[in-house]
Amino acid sequence: MSDLPRGRREAVRAGGRRARMWLTPGMGVKRWLLLFIVCTFVGAVGFLHFTWTGPLHFVATRWILWLNALTEPDIMPLYVGGMAVMALALGGAFLSIVMLNRSMLRSTGTAPENALDLIYSHRTLSRGARIVAVGGGTGLSNLLSGLKAHTSNITAIVTVADDGGSSGRLRESLDMIAPGDLTDCYAALSDSPVLARLLLHRFGRGEGLEGHTFGNLLLATLSEAQGGLQGAMRDVHEVLRVRGQVFPATTTPATLVARLSDGREVRGESGLARQVGAARVEGVRLEPPDLPALPAVLEAIRDAELIVLGPGSLYTSILPALLVPDIARAVRESGAPVVYVASLMTEPGETTGLSLEDHVNAITTHLGRAPDWVLLNSKTIPPDVQARYAAEGAQVLTLQGASRDLRGRVRSAPLLQAGETARHNPAALAQTLLSLIARARMAP
């Protein structure tokens, strides 16, 4: 294989991967393949019986004599020729089925090369763990991109209180919820790489378009056409081929209000970090306070096997989604374990000087329930990366000074993604969360 050209080697590997996917348990393929082979051989025996005992006896005799004439008895037994013919006939039957399926798929607009991925997604991933992820920003979309390789039973509950950038402009112009974090999550869970790339495309020019992403404009268009994003949810998931579900925490525009330790209040998510100054954030709330949640969101929380908070900004990504009363109540009443994925670093302004225990206490205070587990990265962040973040006022979150209760809740794993930035590795994070689910399933 090493002697093959690179493109050919990759094609061979892809072919091997696809072959293994066809044989994955639960695909619903092997049983029908076996039935096809059995029926083919039974049909062959029945046809032989018919020709040998019926009016086609003369034809069968001539066929056997002709086939025997092509076979050298001294080289191989006569029956081997019959086996070769059967193998060729079976191969031809398989080929005809494959080509028939290709023709049918093309007529429906589905590329044959994508059919296996679709079947795998619907058959295998549909039996995966039921996970609810709460938050927003890059952290949540990172998590989703790792989880979607293991399950399609993912529900992302996304904060919609952003009031800056493209989201803020659309929100102000159209009186809609902020679409930015929704767009990131849709791109992370989309089964189409092309659509995912288009959703995140940001226009660099054009009057009125500059600064907007295509995904934000798409959600704004659907929201406008359907009289709100709630009515467009089904269309959004279908158009974007989302593996799982992505829902806003609420479909009503809301404003984040932060209460600071010096008595001030800061309105708006975008200005929080730069307006905190030397003070600390003591709490946050949403206005209006009595915000509705979608029934599908509450149902997903009730059915969840694991509820994941983060990773993401504490006060501007995680807590805003939990401030919707019905969501907080559903999480408190859920029998599923709640895991908080701790940030790798503090965030300048927003969580400057806060310890890991301060993060957990803030979640407990606002949610009314302490996380069952706290997932903490155990891999050392390179010194040069730490130094660069420290110059901006960010520090590594560790267990230093943590209470005995918190230490009992912490689960550590190497979650750092290699690179110049401090980010969670999506694959490692997903694997660790799945191991927590397996542990919860085994618990009495």
UniProtKB/TrEMBL annotation:
Similarity remark: Belongs to the gluconeogenesis factor family.
Record field: transmembrane: 32-58, 78-100
Biological function: Required for morphogenesis under gluconeogenic growth conditions.
Calcium is among the record's keywords: no
GO biological process: regulation of cell shape
Organism of derivation: Deinococcus metallilatus
Gene3D superfamilies: CofD-like domains
GO cellular component: cytoplasm
InterPro entries linked: CofD, CofD-like_dom_sf, Gluconeogen_factor
Entry-linked Pfam families: CofD (PF01933)
Taxonomic classification: Bacteria, Thermotogati, Deinococcota, Deinococci, Deinococcales
Protein name as it appears in the record: Putative gluconeogenesis factor
Keywords: Cytoplasm, Membrane, Transmembrane, Transmembrane helix
GO molecular function terms noted in the UniProt entry: LPPG:FO 2-phospho-L-lactate transferase activity
Protein location: Cytoplasm
